[in-house]
């Protein structure tokens, strides 16, 4: 944290550029439906009329924040108010490098796709049975956590 003051402030994105980028990103989804694209563009332009006031409020708010306009919202909404397990649902490796040997013989084809019915009804949610993949990931997570704790305890983290 000693270098925090040297990090440039997060800029507030230009509103018109953000809306234009949004419209470009949905264009491939509605390319065959000209009416849908026109209606979405109209709604985006209507939004800009209100959004300019909100953008001004954000600019005023940004000046009251010590580091970033996003920092307190991100901390509160992404980490503190979300009641699911952070390590599993947000970033299970946290700051650890991926270990290519972490999974041993578990094959990618053995791992259910996130959101699939197999995933939603997986053994880890319905019983106390866990597969090799889950066990290896948990062990590697604990190992890396203890490695990091050792670096802290030995004063090797600047």
Number of E strands: 0
Estimated structural class: mainly alpha
Average pLDDT figure? 77
CA distance, first residue to last residue: 9 Å
Q: What is the 3D shape?
A: flat
Largest sheet report:
none
How are helices and strands ordered from N to C? HHHHHHH
Low-confidence stretches: 122-126
Rg, please? 23 Å
Percent helix, as a range, is 55-70%
Portion in beta strands: under 5%
In DSSP terms (H or I, runs of 4 or more residues), the helix count works out at 7
Brief rundown of the structure:
With about 160 residues, the chain is mostly helical. It contains 7 helices and no strands. The model is unreliable at about 120-125 (pLDDT under 50).
Describe the protein in words.
This protein is an all-alpha fold and 158 residues long. Helix content is 56%, strand content 0%. The chain has helices at residues 15-30, 34-62, 71-80, 86-89, 117-120, 123-126, 132-153. α1 (15-30) runs antiparallel to α2. The radius of gyration is 23 Å and the shape is flat. It starts with 14 loop residues before the first helix and ends in a 5-residue tail after the last helix. 1% of the residues are buried. Mean pLDDT is 77; it is low at 122-126.
Question: What are the main properties of this structure?
Answer:
158 residues; mainly alpha; 7 helices; acyltransferase; CAT-like_dom_sf; transferase
List the helices and strands and how they pair.
Elements: H1 15-30, H2 34-62, H3 71-80, H4 86-89, H5 117-120, H6 123-126, H7 132-153
Helix pairs in contact: 1-2
């Amino acid at each position: 944290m000693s270098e925090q003051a040297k990090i440039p402030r997060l800029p507030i994105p230009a509103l018109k550029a953000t809306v234009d980028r949004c419209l470009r990103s949905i264009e491939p989804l509605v390319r065959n439906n000209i009416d849908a694209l026109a209606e979405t563009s109209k709604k985006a332009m209507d939004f800009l009329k209100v959004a300019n006031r909100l953008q001004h409020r954000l600019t005023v708010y940004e000046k009251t924040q010590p580091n970033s306009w996003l920092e307190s919202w991100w901390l509160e909404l992404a980490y503190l108010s979300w009641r699911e397990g952070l390590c599993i649902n947000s970033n299970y490796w946290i700051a650890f490098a991926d270990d290519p040997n972490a999974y041993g013989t578990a094959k990618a084809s053995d791992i259910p796709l996130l959101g699939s019915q197999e995933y939603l009804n997986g053994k880890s949610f319905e019983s106390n049975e866990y597969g090799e993949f889950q066990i290896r990931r948990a062990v590697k997570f604990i190992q890396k956590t203890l490695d990091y704790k050792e670096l802290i305890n030995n004063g090797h983290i600047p």
